[in-house]
Amino acid sequence: MAIMHYQANGATFVDGGVILGVLTVAGGYLLGSVLPAVWFVKRQTGKTPWEMGDNPGAAGVWRMVGPQWAVFTAAFDIGKGTIPVVMARCLNLKGLWLAASACAPVVGHNWSLFYGFQGGRGLATATGALLNLSWGEIWPAYILGILIAYWRKWAPAIGIVAFPVGLTLMLARSVDSSIVLAGLCVVLVVLLRQIPWLVSRAKRNR
Asked: What are the CA-CA distances from residue 136 to residues 89, 133, 173, 175 (Å)?
């Protein structure tokens, strides 16, 4: 989407396309900031996931209150990753605008405006964004990640496997560079969120 400017009465204006892009990114962040895991867990236990020492995502909900609530959480989190990307593509956003639209719900999930910038790890929300960006390359990568996670009994293995494999397939199949950039940015946002968790895990294993 090109950024167009025009002047009238000495003032400079930005075209409506840019405004729609900003609204898509901002709306994606606000949507991502909605954490159903917090609501489900608090309703069932009277505590937030953080108070229970767990993650406000689908895997954490499974551990804390059971699989039925985890399914709803996963569906909502994947959906909120999908919607901004669908909107961006309908508006023909490309380049950094597409990347920002794909990242916005993941940023919102990881650093929620509604919960003091606390959040989850962003795997399900990133999944929704990535699947919509490049379905043909991402779904086989996720199948492989799910199989390995099941084998190892460790949910984070899904992303650890699926992200690099999916990006590699996108490059190997010469997917549009704008989509590859957006996918890479989504993965980097998820990795950034993992740093505190990885540091604490490393300290426990010393």
From this structure: 16, 9, 10, 10
